[in-house]
Amino acid sequence: MPINIPNSLPAKQTLEQENVYLITDDRAAHQDIRPLRIMILNLMPKKIETETQLLRLLGNTPLQIDIDLLQTATHVSKNTSSEHLLKFYRTFDEVKEERYDGLIITGAPVEMMPFEEVDYWGELEQIFEWSKTHVYSTFHICWGAQAGVYYHYGIEKRILPQKMFGIFPHSLTNANHLLMRGFDEIFQVPHSRHTGIDEKALYGHPELEVLSYSDISGINIAVSHDCRRVFVFGHFEYDRRTLANEYFRDVEKGMDNVPFPYHYFPNDDPAMRPPFIWRGHANLLYKNWLNIVYQQTPYDLNDLK
Question: Where exactly is the site Important for substrate specificity (predicted)?
Answer without folding.
Answer: 192
